[in-house]
Amino acid sequence: MPKMLEKHAEKAAETTVCPSSPLDLPQVSDTDIAICCEAVCKSFFEPVEGSRSWRNGFLGEKKRVQAVDHVSLEVRRGEIFGVLGPNGSGKSTLIRLMSTLLLPDSGTIQVFGKDVVQHHYEIRHWINRVSVEASFFKKLSAVENLRYAARIYGLPVKQGEEKALHILKRLGISKSKAYSPLETHSRGMQQKVAIARALMTTPVLILLDEPTTGLDPKSKRDVQQYVAEVKATHDATMILTTHDMDEAEKLCDRVAIIDRGKIIALDTPQGLKEQAGTDSLEEVFFRFTGVDWEEVLADESR
Ligand SMILES: Nc1ncnc2c1ncn2[C@@H]1O[C@H](COP(=O)(O)OP(=O)(O)OP(=O)(O)O)[C@@H](O)[C@H]1O
């Protein structure tokens, strides 16, 4: 077995309360680069607001929006890589391209050395993604939803349930909550369950698209601690988009700032602060984008 895979197997075995299924260990290549994007572009056509028939959706006048514009970057294996940017800057599009949910118009993306266009099926086995709009069977409990996900990935029922309970407990969800219908719980709690679901299979690449947006401070801390724990104990690479600068600073090894689809800065949080000659990431963001961070947050809450 290649060295990197052995390390992954050992860590997964060490850290999960219940033994991992062999399906937990996708056969990724022995490479130190998790993701390599080269000159990636993606554009969309959007209805022009105010044009005569823009309310008619696809029948109305359209304009091209360059959501991702010649993005080149490398994400190293095992790091938490942050993507920060104002609303509509292209963060989610970039994540969806990396996770094979969208095809690039041009440029290439490789995940563990495999091209996302040619090897999308294989790559999907390595990835799990958490987005702000996670969908569930709302009449079922968190455990039932997670058991269902575990079955899809081939985990035996009992093992799936044990693992679900272990992760939910780590995320601060009591047993009684874990067994009551999801529709009776807050959005924050449902978001935690979405994160638990993404971690059920110990994926090697975890895409966290604003995982703590809308969570109360305690839930946010639980999730952040768990993400840090996963990083420390698993051979998992994570891409994190967030609007929380403290979170980016606390969790991310490196951060890319994206604006209008372009990467305009990329470094460690400390490196970015040094480049901008400031001691706050908010200020770094302002220096590079010209956009005040408070404006981004106000825009988000609208
Ligand atoms: N499916 C789509 N159809 C049309 N336009 C889209 C589509 N997806 C994204 N866009 C546009 O692409 C641009 C980038 O959107 P994206 O969702 O990637 O930004 P974001 O940085 O994730 O924003 P936010 O922080 O608000 O989630 C925006 O102008 C958005 O309206």
UniProtKB/TrEMBL annotation:
Family recorded in the similarity comment: Belongs to the ABC transporter superfamily.
Gene3D superfamilies linked to this entry: P-loop containing nucleotide triphosphate hydrolases
The protein, known as: ABC transporter domain-containing protein
Limits of the ABC transporter domain: 48-285
Lineage of source species: Bacteria, Bacillati, Bacillota, Bacilli, Bacillales
Molecular function terms, GO-annotated: ATP binding; ATP hydrolysis activity
InterPro entries: AAA+_ATPase (IPR003593), ABC_transporter-like_ATP-bd (IPR003439), ABC_transporter_ATP-binding (IPR050763), P-loop_NTPase (IPR027417)
Organism: Marinithermofilum abyssi
Keywords: ATP-binding, Nucleotide-binding, Transport
